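Private note to self, pasted from the team thread so I don't lose it. Backbone tokens:
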């Protein structure tokens, strides 16, 4: 998380987060367009189906990064009267579309690789393809370094997923270089479709990962147990908080929503309980500056009292039956 988050107000932090996320989105789209132009020329010179897979992957990158950018812009739109919790789930919807396009393209590439097994096409001008792949690796490396910086500063799930995808692209480009070298210098024409098939299966695996992340966001999946335990410890660290229960969390785009019931001394005033809630809110925001926090204050022991009443209500029908007998 950003080191200077403590020095920024929530509004300033949100503005800075929005600026960094949008810059990362524009950088990803620009890099994808540059790589498309380079790989298109490499495919035209070599005819390699492995290069074709990376070209299609870069086309997907451009579309996915553009969708990601649009989704980020929409997700950062402030909450309004019709969307009180903001527009963060636009990222999840965009990710669903990305997963569908990626899976469809991977299937297309598998079919192309299968056809190439029977045709045994000879790859030409391998040195051009190798040069373009090296250029692609260097460009992608520069992009992922910037994306990782943005993720560190903002905690953006969308940019993190995009960065992980581009890291995978560097591996794919390295595999294509290996395929071109083996095919040209060792006269192995079948190695090109084999590597293309392997890359296609990798793309399918990535599509499943994108789909899972999108569903987690859209279905309001909780934070992991470690993060929930950390939030609980932050709440209980306040000396006047006597207990906490019903902690609920969910991520919606750039926003984290945290809701919980906080137990306080029943003898304190409403104004005092409000002040304590504000202090706890600020302490949580020091660690999670992008969080929207909803706190319900309760007298200490009220939860135990509720459980006792529920037990009595469940026991009452049996008692009435016994008395009637």
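Design output:
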């Amino acid at each position: 998380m950003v080191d200077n988050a403590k020095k920024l107000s929530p509004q300033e932090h949100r503005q800075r987060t929005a600026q960094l996320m949008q810059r990362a989105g524009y950088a990803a789209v620009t890099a994808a367009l540059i790589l498309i132009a380079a790989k298109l020329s490499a495919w035209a010179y070599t005819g390699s189906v492995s290069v074709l897979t990376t070209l299609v992957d870069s086309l997907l990158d451009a579309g996915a990064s553009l969708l990601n950018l649009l989704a980020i812009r929409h997700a950062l739109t402030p909450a309004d009267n019709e969307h009180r919790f903001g527009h963060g789930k636009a990222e999840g919807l965009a990710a669903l579309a990305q997963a569908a396009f990626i899976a469809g393209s991977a299937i297309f590439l598998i079919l192309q690789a299968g056809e190439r097994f029977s045709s045994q096409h000879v790859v030409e001008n391998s040195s051009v393809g190798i040069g373009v792949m090296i250029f692609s690796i260097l460009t992608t490396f520069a992009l992922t370094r910037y994306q990782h910086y943005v993720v560190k500063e903002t905690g953006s799930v969308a940019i993190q997923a995009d960065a992980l995808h581009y890291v995978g692209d560097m591996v794919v480009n390295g595999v294509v270089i290996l395929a071109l070298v083996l095919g040209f210098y060792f006269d192995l024409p079948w190695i090109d479709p084999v590597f293309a098939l392997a890359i296609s299966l990798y793309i399918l695996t990535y599509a499943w990962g994108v789909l899972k992340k999108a569903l987690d966001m859209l279905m309001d999946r909780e934070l992991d147990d470690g993060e929930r335990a950390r939030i609980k410890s932050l709440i209980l660290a306040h000396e006047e908080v006597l207990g906490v229960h019903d902690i609920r969390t969910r991520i919606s785009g750039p926003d984290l929503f945290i809701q919980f019931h906080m137990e306080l001394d029943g003898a304190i005033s409403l104004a005092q309980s409000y002040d304590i809630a504000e202090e706890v809110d600020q302490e949580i925001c020091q660690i999670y500056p992008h969080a929207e926090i909803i706190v319900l204050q309760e007298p200490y022991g009220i939860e135990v009292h509720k459980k006792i009443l529920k037990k009595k209500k469940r026991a009452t029908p049996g008692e009435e039956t016994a008395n009637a007998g």
